[in-house]
Write a structure and sequence with these properties.
This protein is of the alpha/beta class and 531 residues long. It is 45% helix and 17% strand. Strand 7 (140-143) and strand 8 (152-153) form a beta hairpin.
Length: 531
């Protein structure tokens, strides 16, 4: 039987500004999962891209006197550098303004149109007479018609999550100039989302890879009745032109998720693979999306309906995470709680944020709070105090007292049995995306090693019984090896440094155990220090 494949994606970050640590949560979460799959020998690729189209990019580019593509590519490059700092291991990181993405966008439109899922109709649109331009939803702000929250976008309320028609918005204003826009008529293309009501319900009911609380939330929207979706925008607009039209462009949310497919195509190009046969139309491939809770509507309704209509495979799982708050407050530039990725990396070792997030992340839809005090406490007491210090203590003891050699030992020790019990639990937690619990059990392995080392006191025993002391330290060195494997998805650089000190390379999940004997290690060095 052909081996199962995994195609894993994170949501496409918008190429309109610098990345902050709130953005990074999702990519770190995805990367930990992908690295775990690779470690266990699975066939997995991780693809992503920058979302480069839309009015915000166009307007900001105009302000700077450059083309929208130049503007977006500047942030695309910056994002790639930030991802590299935080060790995000994409197989491909592309963007949506590529020939591949245009090809698949046109293909989707053609397929959906052919099957009768696309139609045209005249609709009222917002137009700013002062700016002399049509205004998309995100360029009109006002009061939410559902909950009354001020300063909300023309299509969705960030406070209550409601979606609505732009003309339902109270006290609308143009976000560029602040003037009240006027109503005009324009012909646009619509996707028949309403035609997929039954199929979407079936998919939600049958798919056990979706979070129950999100499924219930989405079903609430379906129950209210799905509205057909306008997939075009008037010029001026930075995006792909709708075929055989003048001055009409695909709405950014139509071509953005297609970026998952075009990025897969980029990956396949030089590898003798086919994006559709091997991934998007292959029943042996499991597609997994990671997204934030702010884009649930698009990923649980529009995107699956588009895939159904164009006869592509649907995702098996869509993992939704909460927001990152700073001291329980939403990140805000004006309040000084917006922490840019680059600034964080200049102040701290970026790998430490991976551990902090992992220690808080579960499959549940919870917000993750960042405070510098709590961050320092978790790193200093748990990672450095418990794990890193134990590793250095054991390996440096071998260097100084036992000719840097891991010796023989009996595997009947209680500490070995206790550690082995933890391995399966940790694997299960990684598989189920309960990284918080995986971290707890990894810390337990380190604690077992620390307690055993302290209890046996090899620094005293060696004076009378070198063989006994050597056995104790050799068992502990095997615990160090196991920690380097268990932590590899979360702390790849730390694990790699431990491997080097152990004089090993390419450790896999299958190397867990206590079989490292008669082995000479390299010089131990302190890898992590307290923040």
């Amino acid at each position: 039987m052909t081996k199962k494949k995994y195609l894993v994606t994170s949501a496409l970050i918008y190429a309109n500004g610098s990345m902050h640590i709130g953005h990074l949560l999702e990519y770190i979460q995805t990367d930990i999962f992908v690295r775990f799959l690779r470690l266990t020998g699975e066939d997995v690729i991780y693809v992503c891209a920058d979302d480069m189209h839309g009015t915000p990019i166009q307007v900001n580019a105009e302000k700077q006197g450059i083309t929208p593509k130049e503007f977006a590519l500047k942030f695309h490059q910056e994002h790639k550098e930030d991802f590299s700092r935080f060790l995000i291991s994409f197989d491909v990181y592309s963007h949506t303004d590529t020939p591949e993405n245009k090809k698949f966008t046109d293909l989707f439109f053609e397929e959906l149109n052919k099957k009768g899922y696309i139609y045209e109709k005249e609709i009222p649109v917002m137009y700013c007479p002062k700016c002399r331009r049509y205004l998309p939803d995100r360029f009109v702000k006002g009061i939410c018609p559902k909950c009354g929250a001020p300063d909300q976008y023309g299509d969705v309320c960030e406070k209550c999550g409601a979606t609505y028609d732009i003309f339902e918005l109270k006290e609308p204003r143009c976000v560029i100039c602040g003037e009240k826009p006027e109503k005009r008529e324009s012909k646009h293309f619509f996707f028949k989302l309403s035609a997929f009501t039954d199929d979407l319900n079936k998919w939600l009911n049958e798919n056990k890879g979706l979070q129950p609380e999100i499924v219930n939330y989405v079903k609430g929207w379906i129950k209210k009745g799905l509205k057909d979706w306008c997939i075009s925008r008037d010029a001026p607009y930075f995006g792909f032109p709708v075929p055989n039209t003048e001055n009409k462009f695909f709405y950014v949310w139509f071509d953005a998720p297609i970026g998952y497919i075009s990025s897969t195509e980029k990956f396949c190009k030089d590898k003798g693979l086919d994006a559709l046969k091997d991934y998007w139309k292959n029943d042996r491939c499991e597609i997994i999306h990671f997204i934030g809770k702010d884009i649930v509507y698009f990923h649980f309704l529009f995107w699956p309906a588009m895939l159904m209509g164009a006869e592509f495979n649907l995702p098996k799982s869509i993992i939704v995470h909460g927001y990152v708050t700073v001291g329980k407050e939403k990140m805000s530039k004006s309040r000084g709680t917006l922490i840019k990725a680059k600034e964080f990396a200049e102040k701290f070792n970026p790998e430490l944020l991976r551990f902090y997030y992992a220690s808080l992340l579960s499959r549940k839809l919870n917000d993750v709070d960042f405070t510098e005090e709590e961050f320092k406490h978790v790193i200093n007491s748990e990672l450095v105090g418990n794990v890193a210090n134990f590793c250095y203590r054991v390996l440096s003891f071998l260097n100084k007292n036992l000719a840097s050699t891991i010796g023989k030992f009996s595997e009947n020790h209680r500490v070995i049995t206790e550690c082995k019990k933890e391995f399966n639990k940790i694997k299960e937690h990684y598989q189920n995306l309960n990284f918080r619990d995986a971290v707890k059990h990894i810390l337990k392995v380190a604690s077992l090693g620390n307690a055993y080392f302290q209890k046996e006191e090899p620094w005293k025993v060696i004076k009378e019984d070198v063989c006994k002391a050597h056995e104790v330290v050799s068992i502990c060195a095997n615990i160090v090896k196991n920690l380097s494997i268990l932590l590899q998805p979360i702390l790849p650089r730390f694990s790699s440094a431990l491997e080097k000190q152990l004089n090993l390379s390419g450790l896999r999940w299958s190397d867990l155990g206590f079989n490292l004997k008669d082995h000479v290690i390299n010089k131990a060095e302190i890898i992590l220090r307290k923040v």
